[in-house]
Amino acid sequence: PKTANQNARHRIFHIYVGLRRPIAAIGRSTCTDAMWKVVMSEEVGKKVQAVVDRVNQAVTRRPKTLPCVAPRLVAVSKTKPPDMVLEAYKHGQRNFGENYVNELVEKASHPLILSSCSEIKWHFIGHLQKNNVNKLLGVPNLYMVETIDSVKLADKVNSSWQKLRGSNMQRLKIMVQINTSGEESKHGLPPDETINTVKHIVSHCSALDFAGLMTIGRYGYDLSEGPNPDFQMLLKCREQVCDSLKLSVEQVELSMGMSTDFEHAIEVGSTNVRVGSTIFGTREYPTTPSPSPERRPKVVSEEAAKKMERLTVTEH
């Protein structure tokens, strides 16, 4: 039988390799905060570097006809503590993404982040409602909003940025989100509305700096069937925008590709990839108690199932 010390070492090992088990699982007497931070720092650093290496390798596989733009790696820290953001920052990562306004506000305003991460750049990559715009735009070191999906939202962000930042403010970088898959559960503009929306932003939103186009796309696409059609659609949208507004392809970024497909996205032209679980480990969401038998619904209607599907949070 294993001794107590062997059991403790076994539990520490599992924390080291996965970054998934809470410190409480092994007890404060076995692993101190200092030990945990050393383990976390080494593991996050290794994973950041591994993703950077894969990004660089994917660049070498891009056709020479594509713009020679170094892809930006956005580390998606959704549900992860500020300590993990800090460790990734210490290992050279600068761009971070969040899906929820409240979580971004809390994390970006954390004293640890403010004091130690002066060059951090926050990307908002979740669905943005107009009633949350002012809260989002007050985030320290906000760099880009990647999910503008309507003219009305663009106008709201534009006017709010002007009011909050004043006449001498730097323009806010934004991307227009396109629903390339046509799925009801995905946010974004239909592809055929892309040109008019971008034209409106460029012509009427002086506080915004149009940076490019973004898509999430469908999950689980089999690359053996050929290039991802969602990525191909976003490439087509960029081509149309460039032709219509007389822009070069280098002026219009493409934000596409996540943990499961970022290498393929880069190979076909992505300049901005959003990678979360591959760097920070599998996300753990708070669990809620199961309803008692008498309160548990016996049947879920088809309509209710569709509503639940639309509310599903997308992963990066």
Structural class: alpha/beta
**Which percent bin holds the helix content?**
40-55%
Low-confidence sequence ranges = 8-29, 288-301, 304-314
- What is the arithmetic mean of pLDDT? 84
Notes on the structure:
The structure is a single chain. The protein is α/β, with parallel strands linked by helices. Helix 6 (133-137) links the parallel strand 3 and strand 4. The protein has twelve helices and eight strands. The two termini are 42 Å apart. Helix 2 crosses helix 3 (82-90) and helix 2 (33-60) runs parallel beside helix 10 (262-268). Strands 7-6-5-4-3-2-1-8 form an eight-stranded parallel beta sheet. The longest helix has 28 residues, at 33-60. It folds into two domains: 1-31, no CATH class; 40-284, TIM Barrel (Alpha-Beta Barrel). 42% of the residues lie in helices and 13% in strands. Mean pLDDT is 84; it is low at 8-29, 288-301 and 304-314.
Question: Key terms for this structure?
Answer:
8-stranded parallel sheet, 316 residues, Ala_racemase_N, PLP-binding_barrel, single chain, globular, PyrdxlP_homeostasis, 8 strands, 12 helices, alpha/beta, pyridoxal phosphate, TIM Barrel
